């Protein structure tokens, strides 16, 4: 087995080993939080939907890709190819749309509660699931091409306007169809990544000015830990940077392939790896920037220590309150005398 094939196999297997458990753990954790709180917050619904989209990306594209890399060829027939490619295209598009929606949702939540912002807050809070369903319907309508042109890889001669996806081929037959299909994907991704970037920039702006207004009012917190505003800004900047790096490179390569015929399979493999990398990195990002999830991964000993500290703190507060009540009673008795 050639070195580049071994590297491909190792890379795709790493994506599966890390990405599938991370996304499943995230879904289970948010479901557990929903059961404890007896409700699912809109932001958590969006995050669960994102993890589901990531899982479909990994199962529909990376699993067959990894199996092919280790030598299992001719896995799928024509119908299975159409299904797998369609699921991959739709789930990848959902990943982009949902992440953009999450960024816009957070932007609207921290915006001032005035004018049209109040109406938008109500819309994104009440209809988060409906908005995600509309994204799904839109993306399913955009991608009929895998069903129309997808087929299992064979030794037959195909047109120059064919995408070779290792285990499947998509033969667009002519250049206009090939070009239009590519441009639709690029335009959609530019729109949603642009919305995410603008909303993230607005969030950073709001948080920066909030931090300046609070400067000096929380001097006791200095030197202990980074401020909440800084952590939120860092999370937003990391999310935007991740998108711009991965999908920027992916779309750049996709635009490049639109200018050529008989695309090298290595180029398609690189695009697949970049697209799937976000499915692995996004749950890690959510874990790292959501404090409520950290408690779930603490050891039982540490959790017990926290419980004991909480009990001691509550007892101390009760003792202080009792002392204050005794002093108050003594003062009242003194006045009566």
TrEMBL record:
Residue ranges of every copy of the G-protein coupled receptors family 1 profile domain listed in the record: 22-286
Q: Report the membrane topology from the UniProt record.
A: Multi-pass membrane protein
Intracellular or extracellular location(s): Cell membrane
Protein family membership: Belongs to the G-protein coupled receptor 1 family.
Q: Which organism is it from?
A: Xenopus laevis (African clawed frog)
Q: Return the GO cellular component terms, semicolon-separated.
A: plasma membrane
Q: What is this protein called?
A: Vomeronasal type-1 receptor
Example GO molecular function term? pheromone receptor activity
């Amino acid at each position: 087995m050639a070195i580049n094939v071994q590297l491909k196999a190792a890379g795709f297997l790493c994506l599966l080993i890390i990405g599938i458990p991370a996304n499943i753990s995230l879904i289970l954790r948010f479901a557990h939080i929903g059961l404890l709180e007896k409700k699912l917050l809109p932001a958590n619904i969006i995050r669960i939907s994102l993890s589901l989209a990531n899982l479909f990306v990994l199962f529909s594209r990376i699993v067959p890709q990894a199996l092919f890399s280790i030598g299992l060829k001719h896995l799928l027939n024509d119908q299975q190819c159409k299904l797998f490619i369609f699921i991959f295209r739709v789930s990848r598009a959902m990943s982009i749309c949902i992440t953009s929606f999450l960024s816009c949702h957070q932007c609207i939540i921290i915006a001032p509660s005035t004018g049209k912002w109040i109406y938008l807050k109500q819309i994104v809070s009440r209809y988060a699931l409906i908005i995600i369903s509309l994204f799904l319907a839109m993306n399913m309508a955009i991608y009929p091409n895998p069903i129309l042109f997808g087929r299992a890889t064979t030794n037959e001669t195909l047109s120059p306007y064919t995408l070779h996806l290792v285990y499947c081929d998509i033969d667009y037959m002519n250049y206009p169809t090939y070009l239009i299909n590519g441009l639709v994907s690029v335009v959609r991704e530019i729109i949603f990544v642009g919305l995410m970037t603008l909303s993230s920039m607005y969030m950073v702006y709001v948080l920066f000015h909030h931090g300046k207004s609070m400067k000096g009012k929380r001097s006791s917190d200095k030197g202990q830990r980074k401020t909440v505003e800084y952590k939120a800004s860092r999370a937003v900047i990391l999310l935007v940077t991740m998108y711009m790096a991965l999908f920027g490179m992916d779309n750049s390569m996709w635009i490049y392939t639109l200018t050529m015929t008989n695309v090298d399979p290595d180029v398609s493999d690189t695009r697949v790896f970049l697209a799937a990398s976000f499915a692995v990195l996004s749950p890690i990002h959510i874990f790292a920037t959501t404090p409520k999830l950290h408690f779930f991964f603490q050891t039982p000993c540490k959790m017990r220590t926290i419980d004991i500290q909480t009990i001691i703190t509550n007892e101390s507060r009760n003792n202080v309150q009792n002392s204050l009540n005794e002093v108050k009673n003594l003062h009242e008795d003194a006045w009566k005398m």
